[in-house]
Design goal:
This protein is α+β, with helices and mostly antiparallel strands. It is 26% helix and 40% strand.
């Protein structure tokens, strides 16, 4: 999938990503990278990128990675997410790189590293996605 096609998919599947200005840089079953640019309207006090924005970016990257690893006709939903925040972001671009740790028949576990544009680790997120089989 091209970056443009991946970005279009992300924006259509998760409208919040459109609001945040998220774009896809890589989208494969082995790795998903989403990015967004710092903007004052995405900040909390002191010009820091809001933690909820960081979490939304990571959750979105994890969801795209989970979808890429689903069996045919299955869906997914985040059932657990843990975020460790390591530093604040006051400018530039943040990227979320999601990779699967476990791809099973009932759950998919994704690890996402969020980095700033100097490659410093901003947050580490581990999330579990339920594999939702169609009802028959």
């Amino acid at each position: 999938m091209t970056d443009e096609a991946a970005t279009a998919y992300v924006l259509d599947a998760m409208p919040l990503c459109r609001t945040l200005g998220v774009r896809a840089e890589i989208s494969t079953p082995a790795e998903v990278v989403l990015a967004l640019d710092w903007a004052p309207e995405l900040c909390t006090s002191g010009g820091l990128l809001h933690g909820g924005v960081v979490m939304a970016l990571a959750d979105s990257a994890g969801a795209v990675c989970a979808v890429a690893n689903l069996p045919e006709d299955a869906g997914t939903s985040t059932i657990e997410s843990k975020t460790n925040f390591l530093r604040g972001v006051r400018s530039g671009t943040v990227t979320a790189q999601a990779t699967p740790l476990h791809v099973g028949s009932t759950t998919i576990v994704i690890e996402t590293a969020v980095r700033d544009d100097t490659d410093r680790l901003v947050a580490k997120v581990t999330q579990t996605q339920a594999v939702l089989q169609p009802r028959r």
